[in-house]
UniProtKB/TrEMBL annotation:
Pfam families according to UniProt: 7tm_4
Record-annotated membrane-spanning stretches: 29-51, 63-89, 206-228, 240-263
Subcellular location: Membrane
Gene: AC107331.1
Name used for this protein in its record: G-protein coupled receptors family 1 profile domain-containing protein
InterPro entries: GPCR_Rhodpsn, GPCR_Rhodpsn_7TM, Olfact_rcpt, OR51/52/56-like
Lineage: Eukaryota, Metazoa, Chordata, Craniata, Vertebrata
PROSITE patterns found in the cross-reference section: G_PROTEIN_RECEP_F1_2
Amino acid sequence: MVSSSNNTGIQVTEFLMICFPGMQDTQHWLSIILAPLLVLALTANFVLLFTIHQEASLHEPMYYLLAILSVLDVILCLTVIPKVLLIFWFNMKPISFVGCFLQMFIMNTFLPMESSTFLVMAYDRYVAICHPLRYPSIITEQFVINAAIFIVARNFLATLPTPVLAARLNYCASNVVENCICANISVAKLSCGDIRLNKLYQFVSVWCLLGSDLVLILLSYCFILRVVMCQQSGGAVTKALSTCGSHLILILFFYTLLLVFIFTNKAGKKIPSEVPILLNVLHHLIPPALNPIVYGVRTQEIKQGIIKLFKH
């Protein structure tokens, strides 16, 4: 434990991440699952990004939104998973005070950014299916730029107080974080101060950001489903349902995994502490691994672009 002394006593200057408190001797075996998933997630997202960059036919708003999603996935993966693997493989538990709160900021900001990107992509599908004639005039490159500004500004401003409130607490005792990552409450509860405001702000911000996104996404797909079911062409209905269905399943998986993590965390001692920790880690890994596969491979134009890329 690295510390310094002042008038208030011992001050924590770094934290120790012990990951799974009850699995210290066996937790390294989890790397057998996490490492391949990390390689898959990074490879799939970089292939998707490179394909969109290289293939001129993919320089359209819909594919730019996919590229934004891939960039967010890569950042989330690299922010969390490499440190977890270093802990498992080399017992590199220490993380600096600044590094911990930087990780907390990125996690708390980029996860809602991904949620907002899902919302914009749902709106893109809504316009494409419900208002196809107006699609070229509504979903433009300027629309993507405005959407990107909205995604960054909204979530940056809404989530910035979370790490700021946690960093301002007085850490004067234990520096052992019983988690694999610098989650807000896992770190804040080590302080000597009152953390009720931290808990309240995180609860309100998460439900306002992710909750509103999920409601609007579900509304979009309800409108899409209503229009699709009214179409006379069986082939068009099947194609629309197949594409939107796979997208909706992936989106629901993203939110379901997050909700399960929140509720298991609230359950406290009723559920082993390892469960919410594992869910938190997987939430930064499984969606990034699945997103480029479901959104990319199931999109014919991207599939052809990837085939052409590998042929060259």
